[in-house]
Amino acid sequence: MFDKLKQMFGRDPVTARPELDPHIAATALLVEAALADGIYADCEQDQIKEILAAAFLLDPAAVDRVLDQAEELAEGAIDHHRFTKVVKVCLSEQERVALIEQLWMVALADGEKSPFEDAFVRRIAPLLGIADRERVFARARAEAKVRHR
C-alpha cells in the first residue's frame, strides 16, 4: 500500500506539474479527515505522522514540516477540490485507493466512528475517482488493521 504512494514522488516532473506538492495535498486530505468531526485529536495527528513516515520514508523533521504545511492549508481550505485535483493527477488508481484506506485509518484513529468523518471519506472517494466498492473494501481493511493493534 505504501509502496504505491512512494512512487508518486518518482514521477517525471515534466509530465506532472501540479500546482501543489502532492505530499502536501495528500496530507491535507488526511488532516481534513481528522478535522471532519470538529476534533483534531492527538491520536489522529499521530496516525497521520505514522502514515507520512511509512508512505514517504520521511524523517521526523520532514514529517513535521509536511504536516505543518498541510494543517495550515486544510484549516484555511474552502473546499477539497484543490487537494483532490492534485492527488487524482499524481497518483494511480491503486495509490488513490491506498489513500482512501489511510483516510479511514485517520478517521478510526480515535476509536470512534464519527458520521462526519464517514461522510467526509464518502465525499472524497468519488472526487479521487474511487468507486464505492473500492471505498468499502478500503474501510474494511482499515477497520481490520485497527482491530489488530
From TrEMBL:
Organism annotation: Maricaulis salignorans
Protein name (record): Uncharacterized conserved protein, tellurite resistance protein B (TerB) family
SUPFAM superfamilies reported for this sequence: TerB-like
Gene3D superfamilies cross-referenced by the UniProt entry: TerB-like (1.10.3680.10)
InterPro entries: DjlA_N, TerB-like
One Pfam family hit: TerB
Stretches assigned to the Co-chaperone DjlA N-terminal domain: 23-139
Lineage: Bacteria, Pseudomonadati, Pseudomonadota, Alphaproteobacteria, Maricaulales
